[in-house]
Amino acid sequence: MTNLWFTEKWSKDTRFSIKVKTHLYSEKTPFQQIDFFNSEEYGNFFTLDGFIMVTEKDEFIYHDMITHVPMGTNPKIKKVLVIGAGDGGTVRELTKYDHIEKIDMVEIDERVVLLCEKYLPITACKLRDKRVNLYFQDGLEFVKDSKEIYDLIIVDSTDPISVGEGLFTENFYKNCFRILSEEGILVNQHESPFYENFKVEMVKAHQKLKNIFPIATVYQIHQPTYASGHWMLGFASKKYDPILNHNPEQWESLNIKTKYYNSNIHKGAFALPNYVLDILNK
Amino acid sequence: MTNLWFTEKWSKDTRFSIKVKTHLYSEKTPFQQIDFFNSEEYGNFFTLDGFIMVTEKDEFIYHDMITHVPMGTNPKIKKVLVIGAGDGGTVRELTKYDHIEKIDMVEIDERVVLLCEKYLPITACKLRDKRVNLYFQDGLEFVKDSKEIYDLIIVDSTDPISVGEGLFTENFYKNCFRILSEEGILVNQHESPFYENFKVEMVKAHQKLKNIFPIATVYQIHQPTYASGHWMLGFASKKYDPILNHNPEQWESLNIKTKYYNSNIHKGAFALPNYVLDILNK
């Protein structure tokens, strides 16, 4: 039996390793290094520039929480802009809502989408839904030029140390604000509080969002294959409060099947430990 | 520079590794293999039979949550039994409450206590508090023979696959029930839902507690150095509900300093994801 391990650097002195059965595919695109693997315990998984993006075993956690928290805050969301998210998991969750009319998805690297359709159909299965429009371009440019108005923007990006860098700038957030409706919500991948390398990026992202949006906070998920397992998502909006505006009965009446998200965890996820509140100056 | 790594097996195909500066100490006692390490990122940390128990970097999370959740549920707790917990972190948190009169701590392996006093004074600093009585014996035997009545029992044990095995039996839980007051609470280390090896033990522990206690549930913490980072603690009691009986103002009036625990997270920690509810048949 091949003794093959994928190892990710989680912090200066921490490593996380998964035993791999097959290295399915490898490609260097103009944007990043893409690799797909198969493992017995995690199923298929893929990495960008050596960082795990999605594993079949735990992708439901991230995709539930980046999607259903905003959808459970404003049940009238009809037009959604998704930035990044090439694996398709976020779009898959959004298509569960019949009342969503339009999903524009902007992914810089078309190869991610095409390869996920081949190796990760579990997440990429709804990218050809008729409400979905795929744009293969830079999200930063897209929001700068957009004349559209959205109810929700989901920024499902890589880390700011990679091709995702532009999606963590004040300029980007300002343009998001501009193209959001008066009831608009932005949710984004927001790094992590535990390891120094992610913590500094988390703090910067939060400060920028707080400077632009009247409401800006973060919520947490248990994501075992992301560094420390304690991962953050950002919630920013023009008027909706994620706790006060969540109506459990209303969301439950939609009968949407989820493996992680529910009304209790919608609220519980915003209960931050003291050390995170301190870091964020909250 | 020495390229030395401590590596822990988190599941069949998952490994977690910390870069080590010095292997401070190693000893095989009649009960287990004990090792202390020093690392730049985690400070000192120690392992039992190759599993991380405590690191200076994240011990505050576990010790806050195993202690302040029951203390924040019943503010009248005066007599506490702690089983395991040789590192002293749980006792350190308990001694912050002036109204606690007595803490009996039962640790099977005296060497753990003595070595933690040497290498981990950050957790072991209150073991000689005058309210603390140390018993170096098997917790299973202690509760069987005890004539004492406690308001709170904290089972801060290793995993059931090791010397901690007896502390996961129905017989043990029954004796805990017997020596708890009518307002008694039991909190225990409760494994994890994500990896199969821990999941089966979590389910068994919960079923047993549910058979004995009128109220039995679990709550979750973000513990980066435990497998998956998604760790569980069990809460069982004769009449106190951890949510309904938590009074934020009352707890806050005690002015106890915590780095993880607060009233929001007291409640938020009990908000379980659907897949965990399913596993536990809740």
Could you walk me through the main structural features you see in this protein, from its secondary elements to its overall organization?
2 copies of one chain form a homodimer. Chain A is of the alpha/beta class. Chain A folds into 2 domains: 52 residues, Spermidine Synthase, Chain: A, domain 2, CATH 2.30.140.10; 222 residues, Vaccinia Virus protein VP39 (Rossmann fold, 3-Layer(aba) Sandwich), CATH 3.40.50. In chain A, 30% of the residues lie in helices and 31% in strands. Chain A has 10 helices and 13 strands. In chain A, strands 9-8-7-10-11-13-12 form a 7-stranded mixed sheet, with helices on both faces. Chain A has a 4-stranded antiparallel sheet with strand order 3-4-5-6, with helices on one face. Chain A has a two-stranded antiparallel sheet with strand order 1-2. In chain A, helix 5 packs across helix 6 and helix 6 packs parallel to helix 7. The longest helix of chain A has 17 residues. The first copy, chain A, starts with a strand and ends with a helix. The mean pLDDT of chain A is 96. Chains A and B meet through strand 2, helix 9 and helix 10 of A and strand 2, helix 9 and helix 10 of B. Strand 2 of chain A pairs antiparallel with strand 2 of chain B, so a sheet runs across the interface.
